Amino acid sequence: MVVFGLGGTIAMSTGDGGGVVPALSADQLVAAVPGLAESGIAVDVEDFRRVPGASLTFDDLAALAAAIDRKLAAGADGVVITQGTDTIEETAYLLDLTHTRSEPVVVTGAMRNPTLAGADGPANLLAAVQTAASADARDLGALVVFADEIHAAARVRKTHSTSGHTFVSANGGPLGYVVEGQPRVLNRPSSRTTVPTATEPRPVEPRPVEVGLVTMVLGDTGTLLEAAADRLDGLIVAGFGVGHVPDRVVDTLTRLAARMPVVLASRTGAGPVLSRTYAFPGSESDLLDRGLIPAGFLDPLKARILLHHLLATRHDPAGVRAVFTQAGGHHATHPRPSHPATTPQGTARA
Asked: How far apart are CA 269 and CA 89, in angstroms?
């Protein structure tokens, strides 16, 4: 078992200014977990990063994914990552997309830092190690283990800024629970989408891939869409309800969808984008007819991670659409604008 420490609240202590900052090493975190030494689980530790969750980058995650692959190829039975909770739902999903092996990859953290009474880091880390060491957690991809709940990376969301029970899986619920030190997996996803990174070196890009996320709000006039349009390679639109936008932004979205992938998600955080129920200007069917790509059950943050990864792995427009259809569980028969008959670069599997 390997524990990678990335920093975050779980690794914070009081800094010179009085607030807490990432300071504790991964070794210190593991040493502070009651019961871990008696569990019989051998743990190796790697102090990979020591930053807040909000400061993690795509480059950090690419390096982490490569390090995870090396450890698993060398014989590790599973991996645990400790990090800040601000971005767990995003980093876990990116790791899930690139993880094609059967060994568990478990992400955890803490909502209460070690200087506070009732700090939850040690309990979360113990449950994560127990899950990563369990045969029942194999073939589930990346998981988030928090407050003794086991969540699929593709479903989990942070829903409260301070609660220790902040992580929930609105679409389907948790996969299981850690009970008396034993992971109990009660339900398994019927499919999982993976998009491995290429093994050959990528050509040097003139700049990093940029994918924006714009949330529709009451009275939206499209100002943010217009301002960001020329600086993006792809866009996620978090629409109202089942995928609606104000009629006054429809023309802008139509122009954007003609030159880049524009994915339509729901800002509600649960439930799917529909495809053929409503028919007014700015409705889901109207937008899909104009070339937008439905996110299905993926929430806007997950949709952004997926689109960024697809563009970074050089998928063409048809490939992007095909992977979103699979990953979002959106298998509608709604007619779509025609696209060049090209083969997606990279692979995706259920």
From this structure: 12
Q: Which residues contact 68 (CB under 8 A, 6 or more apart)?
A: 2, 4, 79, 95, 99, 105
pLDDT of res. 202: 55
Amino acid type, 255: R
Q: Please give the biggest Cα pair distance in the chain.
A: 63
Query: Measured at the alpha carbon of residue 229, what is the angle toward residues 295 and 252, in degrees to the nearest 5?
Result: 75
pLDDT surpassing 80 at residue 198: no
**Quick one: pLDDT band at residue 205, thresholds 50, 70, 90?**
low
Note the pLDDT tens digit of each residue in 107-122: 999 999 999 999 999 9
Going from the C-alpha of 72 to that of each of 45, 83, 98, 268, the distances in angstroms are: 14, 20, 14, 37
* Residue 130 DSSP one-character state: H
pLDDT of 144 > 80? The answer is yes
Is pTM beyond 0.90 here?
yes
CA 87 – CA 132 distance, rounded (Å): 20
- Residue 177, pLDDT score: 98
* 197 is known as an active-site residue: no
Q: Which ranges of the chain would DSSP assign to H, the alpha helix?
A: 26-31, 58-73, 88-98, 121-132, 223-228, 250-257, 284-289, 300-312, 317-327
What would the pLDDT profile of 222-240 be if each residue is shown by its tens digit? 999 999 888 999 999 999 9
Mean pLDDT over 285-304 rounds to: 98
Q: Which phi and psi (to 5°) does residue 177 adopt?
A: -145, 160
Output phi, psi for 80, to 5 deg.
-125, 135
Burial of 201 (0-12, 13-18, 19+ CB in 10 A): exposed
Q: Which one of the listed residues 9, 85, 194, 313 is annotated catalytic? A: 9
Q: Could you tell me the end-to-end alpha-carbon distance of the chain, in angstroms, rounded to an integer?
A: 27
- Domains of the chain, CATH where assigned: 2-185 (3.40.50.1170), 211-327 (3.40.50.40)
Bridge partners of 2, per DSSP, are: 44, 79
